[in-house]
Amino acid sequence: MKLRKKSILARFVALAVLLTGMSLPAQAQVFEKNILTGGPSGTYIQFGRNVSEIAAKCGVDLQVQESAGSLENFLGVRKRRFTQFGIVQSDVLEYLKTFAADDPGVARAILGVRIAFPLYNEEVHVLGTNDINSLADLNGKRVAVGVEDSGTFLTASLVLDLAQVNPADRLTINADDSLKALMDGQIDAFFYVAGAPTKIFQSPEIDAARFHLVPISDPTLQAVYEPATIPAGAYPFQSDAVDVVAVKAVLMTYEYDPNRNAYHRESCKAVSDISHLISTRFGDLQANGHPKWQQVDPSALPPGWNIGSCVNVGLDPNYPLVCEGDQPTAATGETPSESEANSAYRRQICATIGC
């Protein structure tokens, strides 16, 4: 595991350098606001477009940017200029914490990371041959874990390490290539992290006599992931419900300090503006956005994540960004046993959206 961690850490550093080099000129005429999402056909980019559309109706220009996935998005918010938001899987923070004790650069990258909104749960799918009945059965097998920098790669790597499972080979290939390799007998199983039901497993070519979804019930995973069930019939080959775990997608931001400099001040305002718009137009997002918006619980903050102070500024009912259709809200009681920032967030979210 040490060699693999060194390899992943090297990738982390190389990507950080690349993103730093992509910084935009400091003297740009218009202060840009950007959100890093994912591939052109994924759910992340559709969520980003939905947020951009509601922002545009109120005169806020939020540019949606494609990316390789969670790791690039995480680093982009930290390193890429004029990038205030990224959609990531919540376990990316836990994943990077495993490096923080040994590498001060990773520790600095984690510092200041904040959540703007929790989004939806993504189930961890492991499609394997029928002789694989648990994660432990992946020991010594050939397993595809997703493309580097993707959310699937991060989650698969963390899940295997937490469960102390050691496949003979970990192939870093995308989901389409993984499915083909599995059906051709080149691999024994592959990971894919996405909200169920997801399109790739709708393929009629997946033969229930050869393949199935592997249950995930390892108790050591419960501290990081939520228990979930993929219901019976979610996919053509799946006749029974399958217990798995799920990771939450989150809208990530940074703890900008408006008193530090003009860049931080404008970035904080961007975070506050978008937070205000998501909270006041949450019903519109659920009604007209991607269907996964209907599964979003804005009060379900994942463990280990703290709300940004600029987010809470935007949730204030008196925040000065007024668009047609806005309705005033009143504050409710504070939830105990959490940070002051998270309590303030939950209070305003419950007042605006309801809990």
TrEMBL record:
Entries under InterPro entries matching the protein: TRAP_TAXI
Keyword Signal part of the UniProt annotation: yes
Signal sequence, start to end: 1-28
Keyword list, A-Z: Signal
Record-linked NCBIfam families: TRAP_TAXI (TIGR02122)
Keyword Signal: yes
Organism encoding this protein: Sedimentitalea todarodis
Protein name: TAXI family TRAP transporter solute-binding subunit
